């Protein structure tokens, strides 16, 4: 299965707080965020790994260009308008039937990720299996509305009484999701949350996969929380 990482954001909140290290190279327990994801993906039988970083992140570019991986590795240097545009730029490398996409600052327990990937590979009728959590750690969470079987019916900016989960920023998708991405680009849509809404409105079969906890690294204070979570 192909794996892809969006690492093209500026990490503006971290920079404002005085962080000098680019977000992909911030270390948790001594390991850069980007390296942690690469290692996990390789352990989960990646057939390729693709990463997009922005043009200003020269330190990250140098770090990634020095890597030697046992699978095809695609490094794309491109500044984009949004995470959805970054996904679209990466999509040229996602040539298999299934792929997993994540942002660089998404922190999760590896054993939960293992079960998530296994479940996605076993599901033959799904177009997508989206990681969700009831642990709300984001400043602007995307709420996920599901039925009793876990099928996703809506992505909401504001929770209603039937929403039990928020998006975790990990997306397992089939190639059937890529034509909808092209459609989103043609319609001038931006942001991953709006792309996900289009997946629902186009009738794709999406399910939610609950993780106990997923943490985003947006602030310096998140680093201690993330290290404690992974201890």
Provide key terms for this protein.
13 strands; 231 residues; 32% helix; Spore Coat Polysaccharide Biosynthesis Protein SpsA, Chain A; nine-stranded mixed β-sheet; alpha/beta; globular; two-stranded antiparallel sheet; single chain
Describe the structure.
The structure is a single chain. By secondary structure, this protein is of the alpha/beta class. The protein has a single domain, classed as Spore Coat Polysaccharide Biosynthesis Protein SpsA, Chain A (Alpha-Beta Complex). The chain is 32% helix and 27% strand. The protein has eight helices and 13 strands. The two termini are 28 Å apart.
- Main beta sheet: 9 strands, mixed
Give the number of DSSP strands: 13
How would you state the average pLDDT, rounded? 95
Task: Outline the low-pLDDT stretches.
Answer: none
CATH topology: Spore Coat Polysaccharide Biosynthesis Protein SpsA, Chain A
Q: Give the end-to-end Cα distance, rounded to a whole number of Å.
A: 28 Å
Radius of gyration: 17 Å
Q: Count every helix, treating DSSP H or I runs of 4 or more residues as helices.
A: 8
Classify the secondary structure makeup into a structural class. Answer: alpha/beta
* Order of H and E elements: EHEEHEHEHEEHEEEEHHEEH
């Amino acid at each position: 299965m192909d794996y892809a990482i969006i690492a093209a954001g500026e990490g503006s909140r971290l920079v404002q707080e005085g962080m000098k290290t680019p977000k992909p190279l911030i270390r948790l327990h001594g390991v850069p965020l980007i390296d942690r994801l690469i290692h996990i993906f390789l352990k989960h039988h990646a057939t390729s790994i693709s990463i997009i970083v922005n043009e200003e992140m020269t330190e990250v570019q140098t770090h990634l260009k020095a890597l030697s991986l046992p699978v095809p590795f695609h490094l794309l240097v491109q500044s984009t308008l949004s995470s959805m545009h970054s996904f679209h730029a990466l999509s040229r490398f996602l040539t298999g039937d299934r792929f997993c996409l994540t942002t660089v600052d998404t922190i999760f327990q590896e054993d939960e990720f293992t079960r998530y990937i296994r479940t996605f590979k076993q599901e033959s009728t799904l177009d997508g299996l989206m990681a969700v959590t009831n642990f709300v750690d984001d400043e602007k969470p995307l709420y996920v509305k599901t039925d009793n079987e876990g099928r996703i019916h809506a992505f909401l900016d504001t929770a209603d009484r039937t929403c039990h989960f928020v998006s975790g920023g990990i997306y397992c998708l089939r190639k059937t999701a890529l034509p909808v991405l092209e459609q989103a680009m043609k319609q001038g849509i931006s942001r991953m949350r709006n792309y996900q809404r289009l997946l629902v409105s186009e009738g794709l079969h999406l399910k939610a996969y609950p993780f106990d906890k997923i943490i985003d690294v947006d602030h310096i204070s998140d680093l201690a929380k993330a290290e404690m979570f992974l201890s």
